[in-house]
Amino acid sequence: MAAKKIIKFYATWCGPCKVYGKTWDKVMPDYKDQVETINVDIDKDISGLAAKYKVESVPTTVLIREDGSEIKKPGRLGKNELVELILS
Fold first, then answer.
1. Active-site residue, from 6, 7, 11, 14
2. Taking the model in full, what pTM does it have?
3. Topology of 4-87 in CATH?
């Protein structure tokens, strides 16, 4: 199990989320051994993660590092931005 976690918050009705989803699906397989991925549909979020991380818009990506520190990036990330976040 990876020590880092990355959470993608999205909604099915969100246009930018759909575009970001394609980028996510292309990038994440290359990093599956380095980071655990979690996808949260904010309209079905029974876990309370969106509230915990104070997600105010979608898409939003949250990286949780090994030391517990967090980086929150609202908005649609490009491929390079997503890779940079994973490696940070």
1. 14
2. 0.93
3. Glutaredoxin (3.40.30)
